[in-house]
Specification:
Elements: H1 3-9, E1 13-17, H2 20-28, E2 37-43, E3 46-53, E4 57-64, E5 70-73, E6 80-84, H3 85-93, E7 104-108, E8 115-119, E9 128-131, E10 153-158, H4 159-168, E11 175-181, E12 186-192, E13 196-202, E14 210-214, E15 219-224, H5 225-230, H6 237-241, E16 245-250, E17 256-263, E18 285-292
Antiparallel strand pairs: 1-5, 1-7, 2-3, 2-6, 3-4, 4-18, 7-8, 8-9, 10-14, 10-16, 11-12, 11-15, 12-13, 16-17, 17-18
Helix pairs in contact: 2-3
């Protein structure tokens, strides 16, 4: 077989990951409905998975190449394909055994453009899965996130507290008004339904909940509750357990960005090799971002 023929058959991507559960946690964080489609984009820098809902909510999971123990990228450009997010997560779950190191190989494309998954470190059996992919029907909408002025309007809240607050604000079919103000430095979540419910995070009162706060003017926007809840409904238990923070940033026009960090570090295994430093590599973090468009509201306080 000629070298050109071999090159033509080379897959776009062959990578290996030694913490399947970490990837499951990251992908589950953006699975807010039972049946969801996702778009996967490959590049030399890593893998990005994108999920959207009615043009008002977009989520991205960034899996940088440093997360993988092997990452061989051969494609030109950035191949994109669609798949079922639920099927992808369920397939990955079959490779995850609690308390054990699980290394899988991910390969794309297969002979029929499938996404191929295979266990590579089990001496007893090889688990193998094929996931059908398709050409994405639409192009992801341009969220066009821009800072609202020279000073970013951002705050970092403990993830558990943020999830609890949003869960408590549930009113069927309602909206949630988020107000950020510099004096006193605070963020307010207010829901309306059969009654009113307001939750305040005061920056100087409880720094254990509101970790960081940057605001030089008051802004206030409303967001559809179901979209806001999707940003926290499936925060992985590992994030809550690690007592991590989630960052909220309000951009121009009220676009809300919510960011979570999920560890994809290899779990501690008895008798497993541990590097001399004994620390988790900072690069072994999956970055998750949600973008939520605000509702049109005459009472909105503009940030122009």
């Amino acid at each position: 077989m000629s070298s050109s023929a071999v090159g033509a058959e080379a897959p776009d991507l062959v990578c290996q990951l030694d913490n399947v559960q970490g990837m499951v946690d990251a992908l589950t964080a953006v699975r807010w409905k039972r049946h969801q489609d996702a778009v996967v984009e490959l590049s030399e820098h890593g893998v990005v998975l994108i999920v959207e809902d009615t043009g008002c909510l977009q989520a991205k999971v960034y899996l940088q190449r440093e997360l993988f123990v092997r990452y061989e990228y051969s494609a030109e450009g950035r191949p994109r394909f669609g798949l079922s997010l639920g099927l992808f997560v369920d397939s990955l779950n079959t490779f995850s055994v609690p308390g054990h190191s699980n290394t899988i190989e991910i390969r794309y494309p297969g002979p029929d453009m499938q996404l191929l998954l295979k266990s590579v470190d089990s001496p007893d059996a090889c688990i193998y899965a094929e996931i059908r992919t398709r050409i994405p029907e639409t192009i992801s909408w341009d969220y066009n996130f821009e800072p609202a002025g020279s000073t970013p309007l951002s705050l970092t809240v403990k993830s558990a507290a943020l999830k609890e607050a949003i869960d408590d604000l549930e009113w069927p079919g309602s909206s949630i008004q988020i107000t950020v103000q510099p004096v006193p430095p605070s963020v307010t979540f207010r829901g309306e339904g059969h009654g009113d419910l307001q939750i305040d995070f005061m920056y100087y009162v409880n720094t254990d909940l509101l970790i960081a706060f940057h605001c030089d003017r008051q802004v206030s926007y409303r967001y559809k509750y179901k979209f806001l809840r999707a940003t926290t409904s499936n925060i992985p238990s590992s994030v809550i357990k690690d007592n991590r923070g989630s960052k909220l940033t309000i951009g121009r026009g009220g676009m809300l960005k919510v960011q979570h960090l999920v560890s994809v570090a290899r779990p501690s295994i008895p008798h497993a090799h541990i590097d001399s430093a004994g620390y988790q590599q900072p690069s072994r973090i999956a970055y998750i971002e949600f973008f939520v468009k605000p509702e049109e509201d005459e009472d909105t306080i503009n940030d122009s």
